[in-house]
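Customer escalation, tier 2.

The customer says the design service returned an amino acid string that "doesn't look like it belongs to this structure." They asked us to rerun it and document both sides in this ticket. The original structure tokens are below, unchanged.
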């Protein structure tokens, strides 16, 4: 990881500018960014630790706690809310058997809401990993969950409701 961060940092005249690329490298290596990793990134770059911490905790693409294999980030800004994101959140919580901020016991899904994904034309929208999924409704959301479950070799979302979700 050190070599990758140093190579990325060499592209910037100011090491502070390399914090975001360095955090991406570290997160890819560790899966998330616990405090010791944030400190290591700061030490490698020779920057203040608070600068690294500020960026890691500000941007939703960085995770300071472990997340599931599929991190479902549902936009809850006004455009998405007006187009049904609250209903989608309640549906996801029921199907997955977790509340917002939680991770399924099998480690497959983490469910979060984010303030804005900058894709209002696709509202309601959800980010899964690096991919955006827009114009969501319950049916499209179910199909997406099924694809993700199948990709992981798991039961489908409909089966998850029957198997383990509260109220399912």
């Amino acid at each position: 990881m050190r070599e990758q961060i140093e190579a990325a940092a060499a592209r910037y005249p100011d090491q502070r500018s390399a914090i975001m690329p360095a955090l991406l490298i570290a997160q890819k290596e560790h899966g998330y960014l616990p405090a010791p990793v944030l400190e290591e990134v700061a030490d490698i770059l020779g920057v203040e630790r608070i600068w690294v911490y500020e960026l890691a905790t500000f941007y939703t693409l960085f995770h300071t706690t472990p997340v599931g294999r599929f991190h479902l980030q549902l936009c809850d800004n006004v455009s998405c809310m007006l187009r049904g994101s609250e209903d989608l959140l309640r549906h996801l919580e029921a199907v997955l058997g977790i509340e917002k901020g939680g991770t399924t016991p099998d480690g497959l899904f983490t469910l979060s809401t984010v303030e804005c994904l900058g894709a209002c034309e696709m509202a309601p929208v959800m980010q899964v990993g690096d991919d955006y999924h827009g114009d969501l409704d319950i049916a499209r959301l179910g199909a997406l969950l099924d694809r993700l479950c199948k990709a992981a070799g798991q039961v489908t979302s409909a089966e998850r409701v029957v198997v383990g979700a509260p109220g399912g």
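Tier 2 assessment: The sequence is consistent with the input. Residues 42 and 49 are 5 Å apart (CA to CA). The mean pLDDT is 91. Sent an explanation to the customer and offered a walkthrough call.
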